[in-house]
Every structure is written in structure tokens, then in C-alpha cells.
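Notebook B, p. 112. Complex prediction, attempt 2.
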Amino acid sequence: MEHIQKPVKDTARPRNPLMAWFDVRKRRVGSWAFALNRLTGLGLVVYLLLHLVVLSILLQGEAGWDKFITLARHPLFLLMDVVLIFGILFHGLNGIRVALVGMGIGVRSHKTLFWILMVIALVALVISAVMVFTI
Amino acid sequence: MPEKTITFRIQEYKQGDPAPHEETYQVKCDHNTTVLIALQDIRREHNSSLMLRHSCHHASCGTCGMKINGQEQLACVVKVLELGTPVVTVAPLDNLPLIGDLVVDMDPFFAKYNAPDMPYIRSSEFNPEAATPDGIEAYTRFENCLECGICVSACPVAGSDLAYLGPAAMAAGWRVVEESRGQETASILDWVNNEHGCWRCHVAFECSEVCPSDVDPAGSIMSLRRELIRQRVLRFFSPAKQGS
């Protein structure tokens, strides 16, 4: 019997998992929300660690803390605060959509739900940004 | 619509190649030319080694799923000129092992259908009184799913969890639960009730967006979750639970 060689599978496939998550070219709003939810989730974890590091400056006494406060009032730092608020708002509000739809609530109107929550996020973000830069 | 020359950029790969690469072909297309027809023209006139899979040419068999201009579609029903781009890119489906050129290995896809008690064909309850033609014992009803694998290719989770059951298989599972026709459904629900089943889905809904047959796999996955939650709540408040 003739020997038939079994095709060798390309070890490069399936593609890199990160590509599967974040390659959103030609994708619809659900995939963009999925990718952004992951990014903001990772960003919030990194922020939490940075926050703990920053708080540890208190251990250096009053001088170290004053130096940090000067840094924290720099416009670039304030801009980072706005980015952080965006991450919190998007992750939190999109998380509500994921939780509701994931329990079978609002499945048919998941896109409408997403955009309603994103309008809320945008309004909250603008108000927060004004407060960050003016108060 | 007059004939136009369209550039096709096709991802090609043969066993032993270090990596997939792109080849470019010029194809004359008219308003009737589908991507599948164009690919067959390329194979006939330019590259007889081009590997692609097809059968019916009318979106029934589900074998010609591929990425056309970056989106998963059935090549047999996509008109080239309606894409509206002078260059058309064609690539194999993602998230399934590549065999060659535009052909992926569907084994992992169909393996997910090996669920306990998952029927391939079910007896139809429709028209029970109608006479059947000679040689036919009973009517059967087919499901909408073409088993083309397009949903798996578009799913971001299927790309990162090889054990994930995937949209198509779970949509098939939900069909059994939704319309059991006397069949027990506990084994199907048990099959999807784990971290590689319906709980792995992250609600991107891309599977439902790309499905060429309007199966709505994401909606089915959410329905499976809702049913599992419903049963869990009922068990929690059941007299047996309260008495234990």
C-alpha cells in the first residue's frame, strides 16, 4: 500500500493569541470593546501597582512627599489622570454590559446598550477632565 | 458593469515553507465574477498549485470560507467588483491549523461536535402526516449552520484557547436544548458548563456578525448561560436543597 504522508501542520498556526485579541482591523464594535476592555484591564492592574509604589514615597518623609505632589500637579501627570479615568469608566461600564449580556439579559440589544453606556462614559470623562485640570 | 482588471493578493503557503507569503495576480472580473470564480481563474491561468476548497458555489456547503479583504466570508457569494477595491486580499481562515494556501485543517473544528448525545441529523417534527416518497422513511430537518468555520476564525477567544468549544459547536448545542424534541439535554448543558465552554466567551459577538447563515452563535452561547443560571437558581430554591 502506498504510503501517504500526513500533512505537517504549520506550527505558526493558530496565530499569536495577542493578535487574536488585539487585531481588530475590519472588526465590529464588539471586538473593539473586547480588545479595549483587555487593554484597560491590564492598564488598571499596572496603575494599581504604580499607585502602591507612589504611596510608598510617604515612607521617605515629608520632603519626598512634597516632591511627589509637585510632580503630580504637572500637566502631563494630570493628563495621565484623565487617561486613568477613561480606563476606569470604559472598563467599568463595558463590564456592566458584558455582565448583563453574559447572563442573557439584553442580548439582542447589546450594541445599543454599549453605545448608551459609552455616552455616559464620555459625559463623565469630560466632567472629570474639567475637574482634574481646574480644581 | 464593465469588465475590470482587479489585483488579487493571495496568501500562499506550502508544507515546508518557512512562513506564508503573498503572491499577486491580475484577474479580469465582470459583475458576475465571485471571489471563488476569480480564484479558480488564477488556478487555471496562473498558478495550478493554488490550494483552495470549494464545492457548491451557492453558500450551502460552507467549504469556501476564507478572509477576503480581511473579513471572513464565503468566497462563492462575494462579488469581486462589489467589494469596491482595486486590490483584493485573500487569506485562509484564522484559528485553525493551516494545511496550505487557503486550506485550513477542519479536524479541530469538527472534533468539537463530538459532544455527548449531539445529534448530527434529527428527525423533523414538521409535516408528520405527509406521505414520504418511496425509499424515504421520514423527513429530516437540517440546521442553518453551514459548518464553515468562519465564526471560529473571527472569534478572539478561539485564537487564544485551543480547548475552547467555539461558537459553532455551542450554537449546535443550544439548538438541541432549545428544541429538544424529547431528547434529554442535561449532557449538552454539562458539556458547555466549564471554563472552555460557554463561560469562556467574552461577548465580542464577532461570530454572529460574520456568520453567513444568520445562526447567531453568540446569542446561542448567551442562551446557554441563561439556561444554566436559571437551572442553578431553581436548584438553589428547590425543596430538596432547602431540606438538605
